[in-house]
């Protein structure tokens, strides 16, 4: 169950990172509230996953999911550049996240 909590926490990290863009410096009420709720839920689920997962593994996977998702959505939603170098670096993060999942003993 810890891995489920961790993946959901990572998806919520993507939501709050993207949400930050829509808050416009926390001047927009609804995006600001949504972003804050996602932050709280993301940290709460990360904390639950840490009951059984090693902190280094869980934190790396959590930030990796967030980094991958935020980078991809930045390309899709905000037309950020999808250069070969950028895509290769995102692929390395994916490999690291998947690798950590398979080498973790939990």
List keywords for this structure.
single chain; mainly alpha; 0% strand
* Helix percentage range: over 70%
Give the CA-CA distance, first to last residue.
Answer: 10 Å
Summed up, the domain count is: 1
Class by SSE composition: mainly alpha
Radius of gyration: 15 Å
Number of helices: 4
Instruction: Please give the largest β-sheet.
Output: none
What's the SSE pattern? HHHH
Average pLDDT reading = 95
β-strand amount: under 5%
Query: Uncertain segments of ≥5 residues (pLDDT<50)?
Result: none
Tally of DSSP β-strands: 0
Shape: flat
Main location: membrane
Membrane topology: Multi-pass membrane protein
InterPro entries: EmrE-like, Small_drug/metabolite_transptr, Small_multidrug_res
Transmembrane segments: 33-50, 57-78, 84-103
Question: What is the compact description of this entry?
Answer:
The chain has helices at 2-23, 29-49, 55-78, 84-103. The protein is built from four helices and no strands.
Commentary on this structure:
With 106 residues, the protein is mainly α. It has one domain. Helix 1 runs antiparallel to helix 2, helix 1 runs parallel beside helix 3 and helix 3 runs antiparallel to helix 4. It contains four helices and no strands. The model has no long low-confidence stretch (mean pLDDT 95).
Task: List strands and helices in order, with pairings.
Layout: H1 2-23, H2 29-49, H3 55-78, H4 84-103
Helix pairs in contact: 1-2, 1-3, 3-4
